[in-house]
Every structure is written in structure tokens, then in C-alpha cells.
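COMPLEX REQUEST
Ligand: magnesium ion
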Amino acid sequence: AKIKEVDFVKSSSRVKECPKDGRPEFAMLGRSNVGKSSLINFLVRKKEVALTSKKPGKTQLINHFLVNESWYIVDLPGYGFANAPESAQMDWSSFTKGYFLNRETLVSVLLLIDASVPPKKIDLDCANWLGRNNIPITFVFTKCDKMKGGKKGNRPDENIREFQEVIRETYKQHPPWIMTSSVTGLGRDELLLHMSQLRNF
Ligand code: GTP
Ligand code: MG
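STATUS: Structure written out below.
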């Protein structure tokens, strides 16, 4: 399940432009600052692989990265930018929803959720939308090392439990979920194994 090489392939502005070779892909999604870039670097263990997310308001792109010449990691524009103009957020939804609904080779969305803060409405809305539309999803909770101190809102276990309770209304079966930390390495092997199992179905 190891990642040996990652190559940037292309940026697409719509599903029609995405690679057509039929290889399976995983799309990474999450709020700005959730730890997307860190997670990628942590999976790949290479600092040079920069999956840069786009700034709000700029052209929004679907970025394909080919892993081990056999499957894709797709970097999508983040959502919930604090300073994004309303119009940029609107664009995000129609653009990204089109991708989710029409991309046949999508194996699973990896929805990144910051476990160090209590559940945010925008993440719950996103999880519920994907669930209602039967898009396969894996919850990847990030920043799970931020446990200590016992400060309110800084308890990943509780934050995760709370998140799962809310989405239970949408999901009959709870989707797979993995706790990660790019600081301690928690969840790395589990996530790589999970992705390799899904690819072989
Ligand atoms: P944008 O590209 O700006 O949307 O952010 P991003 O989602 O790529 O997040 P990024 O990986 O840049 O991480 C944001 C901040 O969170 C950085 O300061 C990281 O060091 C920190 N961070 C990311 N992952 C972890 C983690 O697992 N644990 C801790 N403690 N901090 C983390
Ligand atoms: Mg980033």
C-alpha cells in the first residue's frame, strides 16, 4: 500500500476535462486550514509534493495527481474560506457538486474534518449533502494529536463523537472513518490500507 511516487497530471476546470483513463481516484475535500496539504505530505512522506489549494475567488480547479502510476489523488478547492465573497462560495458548490455527481471513477471522497474543534455547520452540511446523494465517503479526522490540555473544544474524541451523532440522521450505516495526525503519524498505515482495499473492489 506504499506510495512510491506522485506526479502532477493536470488541472481541470470541469469534469469533462478530467483524465479519461479509467483509473480509480480519491478526492480530498475539506475546509481551508483543515490540514489537506499536511495529510498529503504525511501520506507521501515527501516535502516536495505540494498539493496547493486555490485561493478563494481564483479559478477553481480539479487537480489530478497520479500515484504509483496506477491511481489518482484529486485535490479540490477548499470550502468555507473565512473571507471568501459570497459569489466564490456559490461557485464552489455548483462546480464541485458537478464533479461528485458525474465522476464515474471516484472511489471515495476523503472528507477531512478538523477533530480539534467542535463540529462546524459547513462540514456537517457537506457530509449530509454527500450522504443524501449517495457519494461514497471516508471521514478523515485531522489534528487528532491536539488532545492535551483538556481545554473546551480541544478534545478530538468528543468532537468526533458529536460529529458522528449529527450525521447519523443522514447515514443509515456510518461511513468508514479514520483518525489521523500529521504530527504523530497516527492513521497513516490505516488510511493507506483502507484506500488500497477500496481500489480493489
Ligand atoms: P489550505 O491549503 O490553506 O486550505 O490549508 P490546508 O488544508 O492545506 O492545511 P495545512 O496542511 O496547510 O495545515 C494548516 C495548519 O494546520 C498548519 O499550521 C499545519 O501545521 C497544521 N496541521 C495540519 N495537520 C495537523 C495535525 O495533524 N496536527 C496538528 N497539531 N497540526 C496540524
Ligand atoms: Mg493546503
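REMARKS: The beta strands are 6-12, 25-30, 62-67, 71-75, 106-114, 137-142, 177-179. The pocket of magnesium ion (ligand 2) is lined by residues 36-37, 53 (CB under 6 Å).
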